[in-house]
Design goal:
The structure holds three protein chains of three kinds.
Chain A lengths: L1 H17 L1 E6 L9 H8 L2 H4 L2 E5 L8 H6 L5 E5 H10 L3 E6 L6 E5 L14 E5 L4 H10 L5 E5 L4 H5 L4 E5 L3 H6 L9 E2 L10 E6 H6 L1 H20 L1 H14 L6 H14 L14 H13 L9 H5 L2
Parallel strand pairs in A: 1-2, 1-3, 6-7, 6-8
Antiparallel strand pairs in A: 3-10, 4-10, 5-8, 5-9
Chain B lengths: L1 E7 L2 E10 L4 H8 L8 E12 L1 H16 L3 E5 L3 H9 L2 H4 L1 E3 L1
Parallel strand pairs in B: 2-3, 3-4, 4-5
Antiparallel strand pairs in B: 1-2
Helix pairs in contact in B: 1-2
Chain C lengths: L11 H71 L6 H12 L3 E8 L13 E6 L2 E6 L11 H9 L3 E2 L3 E2 L7 E10 L5 E10 L1 H9 L7 E5 L5 E3 L11 H7 L3 H11 L4 E6 L3 E9 L4 E8 H4 L1 H47 L14 H48 L13 E8 L7 E8 L2 E9 L4 H18 L5 H13 L8 E9 L4 E7 L5 E3 L5 E3 L19 E4 L4 E6 L1 H4 L11 H10 L5 H16 L8 E8 L9 E6 L5 H15 L3 H21 L8 E9 L2 E8 L26 H9 L2 E7 L2 E9 L1
Antiparallel strand pairs in C: 1-2, 1-7, 2-3, 4-6, 5-6, 6-7, 8-9, 8-12, 10-11, 11-12, 13-22, 14-15, 15-16, 16-17, 17-20, 18-19, 18-21, 21-22, 23-24, 24-25, 25-27, 26-27
Helix pairs in contact in C: 1-2, 1-4, 1-8, 5-6, 8-9, 10-11, 15-16, 16-17
The chains are: A alpha/beta, B alpha/beta, C alpha+beta.
Chain lengths: 311, 100, 779
Amino acid sequence: MKKILLLTLSLLLLTSVKAQKITFTPKWLPQSQFAGYYVAQEMGFYKEAGLDVVIKHPSASEFAVDCLKEGRCDAITMTLFDAIANIDEGLEIVNVLQTDLHTGLVIAPRSNDIKSLDDLRDKRVGIWRTHYYQLSQIVNNDHNLNIEWVPFVQNVNLYISGAVDATMAMIYNEAYNIYSSGFENITFISLADYGYDFPEEGVYFTKDYVEKYPDNAKAFADASRRGWEWAHQHPEETIDIVMKIIQNEDLPANRQQQEWMLKKILSLQIDDESGKPTFELDEEKIEQINELLLKNNRIAKSVTKAQIKGE
Amino acid sequence: MEITILKENETSVVVIEGRVDTVTAPELESAVKPLINMGTSVVFECEKLEYISSAGLRVVLAAHKQLTACAGKFVIRHLNREVKSVFDITGFSKILNIEE
Amino acid sequence: MKQKRKIRIGSLSAQLSLFILILTTTLLTTIVFLNYNSSRKLVREESIEHAQDALDNTILRIDKVLSSVEIAVQNISLVVKENIDDPSHMYGVTMNLVQSEEYICGSAVAFEPDYYKEKGHFYSPYSYRDGDTIKSKQLGNKNYDYHYMDWYQIPKLLNKPYWSEPYFDQGGADVIMTTYSYPLYDDDGNLFAMLTADISLELFAEHVNAIKTYPNSFNVMIGHGGTFLVHRDKDFILNKTLFEMALYNNDSLTLKATHDMVDGKRGMVEYNYGEERFLFYAPIQATGWSVAVSCMHSDVFAKIEDMRAKVMSVAIPGLILLVVLCYILIHYMMHPLNEFAHSAMEIARGNFSAKLPHHNNNYEMKTLYKSFSFLQNSLQNYIDELQLATVNKERIESELRIARDIQMGMVPKIFPPFPEREDIDLYAKLIPAKEVGGDLYDFFIENNKLHFIIGDVSGKGVPASLVMSVTCRLFRTVASSVHEPSGIIKSLNDALSESNDSNMFCTAFVGIMDFDSGILKYCNAGHNPPVIIDADGNASFLPVISNLALGVWKDFNFEDQEIKIEKGSNIFLYTDGVNEAENTNKELFGEERMLECLAKYHSKSPRIIVEEILNEIKAHASGAEQNDDITILCCKLTLNDNIAPDCELVMRNDTADIMLMAEFIDGLCEKYQLPMDVGFSLNLALEEAVANVMKYAYPEGEVHDIVLSVKLTDNRLMFKLIDTGKPFDPTIVPDADVNLSAEERQIGGLGIFLVRQIMDSVEYRRIDGKNILTMIKLL
């Protein structure tokens, strides 16, 4: 009897000590964009890695980075662009996993009369209130477009109502809404065609956390990566998981939209040469971003890969 | 011509072999003559008779007449085709007893 | 006789019934089809109208609500402007607005950032219904920067009032709201605030869902992007767009319709996502949304389909009934025809008095009956007449046949006619064109002279044949006493000329051939000159004086002619049926051809010459009918007594030598390949002949020769028994009577009887002190 009690107690202690709590705030509301993490959660990859992960989505007007800054969460997703800009500003964050190797940024014109960046000169273009401000400025300056940016919060009503001439969109997100709102014939202008094909999302912890709990950070990164790889192999089941998560948050879930999103997201993770997701940070791309930011006086000095990686 | 006379019960069988023509007819006549008596029965066995001319026919007719006259019997047997036709042409078939 | 009622496919009843069925069905089907189609169209149009009406109704109601909100907001905007200097007054304003309209559940006056400096960045007084009360608060804050909300930004950019796209209310789940934003401008034309009124879409949903058109119909409302605002499936609301569905189903029609809806058009589209449906849509002008009604095809056309089913259920049994009745009726009416057919069969079998069906039920049957009766009678009469005519014809024909036989009997037909004579060979043929003819020929030998005649009576058939027979008979009679050809001719002429009422005449040629002198005396009476072919084959016409045909002029003076005939010549007599034989092209055989043929075959026997000429004529005619009697007589004069025999046997007049003869005959049989029965008969016949000679020809005791010679010519086997004894003609001995009884039979006479029976010809001649007995056996 005594022995059993002792055993169970120690086991409990062990397990309780073992499971590390991590609060993870993806960049946006629940959607296939963050499928890998949901998979890792649902399939128990985090648990297997000894982590107790809470995925807390930001509210409509919240910034994920603010959550990180204010300690409301431990890890977030962030674009590389923003990461470099933030690091330059002094934010101490570390990239533990790079998921997107390409950009999904496109510009959706309201009519096919606008075919190139030049056609956007002096036009009103919608842009996310909370993201891509830096990049859009750079594009504006590089091509002398004199765009009037109109920030939108979360949907494409700005575009549909005709209040803007074009809008920034994510190929995996807003692009679908635009496509299925009667604009199925619109040709998107891809920023990648203009040399802005930068890797996008990655998982970032604070430098502090990584130094304090390096194992946790690594475990989280590995399990998350595992989740993404699983998603590549089982897209149908991944959608089921995503739908469940969305419905749990009491949000409207459109399966067709999530399918589109997952497909696009997964494609952004594929390395051109090997045809597989590599989850690697490309040094060259970092250089390019640095160049661009420096040129446009967005950063004071280059941010190295080592810095980003926290090495 | 060969003539052989056999006795079968009460009948005299005259077996004629060969040709009965002008030359040989008298021989036949003399052979037959003694056989013709009261009530005798004479048979001409003609199986081997090859040929008969009018001389021979005369002998036959005479025999027939004599036998009939003395209530005897006269039968001619086994005429071959050609010889029979002679009997037919001459109408002898009608007046003689010809047996197959 | 009543026929069994069988349903025959080929029967008139069946055919007519079928025809009527087909016609009626086609007609009915066409009518029904047209009717059905136009009904469907009508129903379709009606249902479209019906649905449109329902839609319009609803839209009107919705529009009413929307415009009342708009008006209320516009009115309040004036109040806002009036109280612009008192920011806190705005709370009251919003509260008023909410109170004024029951549909409005919230209202705000959202100011531009820092419009009221003291109020800060997010001054936005806001009132809202909370249960039965109306509460107020500040809408915007750092976390809720309304300046970037659609309801603020879009009307600001568009510079006009704006009904926002519906959204889920933050406060309560499942409550869909829309906000009417009314931008407020200051005197400089700059926007300073946005006056808003929130209304719940629930009431819209109620109105929309109140449209009831058909049992299985449902209603939707879609927004600017095609988003479902009202839908029976809650998951669709604000979650799916109609564009999505159309694109997913590759439905270009619905895609276009959705575009139309979003563009504010009204219309209708047919789609099929599982069931066939109509979608009627119409716009809500104020907001740019669109209301639509979806009805099932089967509902819309329910009544039509029902009607069609009813029509079918009546039509099909009706048609069947029609066919059956038609069949029965027609069959009944046509029944008499069957009976007529039957009667016709009876009549055809010979029963002319067969009874005809008498039907009075219609004009056609009556007429048919009359015609049939008449036919029956006519047939009977005709048959009777025909029978009579046939009997008469047969009688005449049989009499003609007899006449022909009589006629043919008049001319000599046995060839060779003089087998015992080697100095002449003769063959003749008469082929009449009809059963009886007008040609004639005749010949006989008397006193070693051949008397012959050939003639041609004018015309053919029975009249000519009568003259011919007279002439033939006359010739025989006259020729035996008159020794000059002209004399014979004259007698014939006299006879024919007298009482020649019908003016028939006869050409003739009379000849007398003297074998001793070799001279031919002749007289021609208008006949074709004969042809003489000499031993070398040269054929030429005998020079004749034509004189005049017989029967024309009684006192005509006919002239004799004479010519020497050399050994081996042929005399060829003919009538004009030979040289004037026609073929189908009416071409004549011709004298040239005749001469050619005669020259060709001159060395053959007369029989062969005649047969060959006839073959040539037949070949020439090549199927054409014989137009005239053909008569040919050909006579070859060998004039040669001394023809060497094939073989000879010399015997002594001793009966013993009969053996020799038997052997000799055996040898002949072998040589000539004679069958056994022929050999036997020859043996018998010759023995009789020879025995006779041996016994009686020579005086007793004297030894003399007897010669037996044999010659085979064609199929003639000629024996000559020659002795130098006293003249004795065995042929004058009468035949024995073979029918006498044995008693009555004589011994003698049998021998010669047998010889005559066996041999085909027995002739005795005494020449130069010799007895020559010529016996011919035809093989």
